[in-house]
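User:
I would dearly like some help making sense of a protein record. Take your time, and here it is.
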Amino acid sequence: MSPTTPEPMARSGVLLTRADLHAHTRASSRGATGWLDALGVAESYAEPERVHNLARARGMDLVAITDHDTIDGAMVLVERGMPGVIVGEEVTTRLPDEGRTLHVLVWLITPADHEEIGRLGLRDDAVALAHWIRQKRLPHALAHPLFDISGGLGRATLRRCLRLFGGIEAINAGHATARHRAALARFLEDIDAERTAQTVAYGGEPALWPRRWLTAGSDDHALRTLGRAWTAAPGSGHTPESFFRAVMAGEGLVGGRDASTTTLAHQFLSVAGGFARAGDAPAGADGRARRWARAVLTRAPGMRRVLDAACDPTADADADRRRLERASRKAMAHSLAGLSAWLSGRLDRGS
């Protein structure tokens, strides 16, 4: 059985526990890029309870909240006693000798663990983070390994990451396309062939974990792709702990949709809609930049229709998705000329 095709098992009557292992809430309050931070644009404006409920409605037995460098969103659900919650964190870290930024999904994390990551400086040292994860035997995965964060990960860096981390996110419904999935599968096959031929671990150095496991998740930021990619474990009624024991033992399966340029654009537009509806910006230069950006999103001709279409909560089924795509394209095409003239006028006035 291929680890990327759970559907045959489901059709054969084998019970599966499914989990979306990568989802964001409004607790991801800082942008992943400098220009988003400068404008005060959050990664997500989704309420934790809505994320949880929608993922469950789409068939997920377990839902991992993995906000950027915080567990606040997940803890809101834990404190409310919501069922099937996995506390996770998408930890931003870096390979200091390469200057490469990595995102590592860590699950079953506690408030004490979260504080320890910061106190030990693990966000600045991916190697130290990997050893810390190994010591605590925490389930984890290198997130969207082929998606460009800091210039892209080359083959040598990916080999190094495979020595450090046991889990790899094979399907990401928010950012990784079918080409990403296929390229990653080919790379992993090549690595496994080299290991067999040379009888050594990756690059001659032993791996921290004796086996590799694959995961999948939506990487949803805007209630758009929740439950569209999932990780599954055979059996029903899994707790988060028993679920990850199965996944880390190599019994997990991954499946679901890949991302597309359309889904990525919808996520960006939905986040833009949340930003446009956010509260007043503070005074000062940063506040002026935020107010100017918000004005573009709220008063430029046609942009309101684009945002309303992107944020349409009924656009879940394929038919709705196609309708949404048509509405977005039409609104964007209608607004481009007016938006260009509007921006030119603002710049001419120096406002």
